[in-house]
Amino acid sequence: PWICSGMTGGRVYLRHWPEMGLTEEAMRRRLAKGAKVAVKPLDLRGIEDVRELLSAYIRVLKEAKREEKAARLEKLLLDPAQHFRMVEPVSQQVEQGVSTE
């Protein structure tokens, strides 16, 4: 049930849907204890990523004749920043005196 345990890179995109209880607060509650990550609004790259991922999923749904589901998801493409949040690792500055490199 805990997310982002040990996350050191990349991004995770989460559905933001307050009416269904999927709030930023709820997302933060699900983070693994000690996860060094931040829940943030989408940036430009995040918007592009979500559009690409959703578009691919919508294409597969249409191929499977799941038009109704595809139509609901197409609405999310209009404003991905409203409907999704991203989780990224918090950048950590390494103290040079401690670094082993």
UniProtKB/TrEMBL annotation:
GO MF terms held by the record: oxidoreductase activity
UniProt-listed InterPro entries: Glu_synth_asu_C_sf
Coiled coil: 47-74
Keyword set, alphabetical order: Coiled coil
Lineage: superkingdom: Bacteria
Name this polypeptide is given: Glutamate synthase domain-containing protein
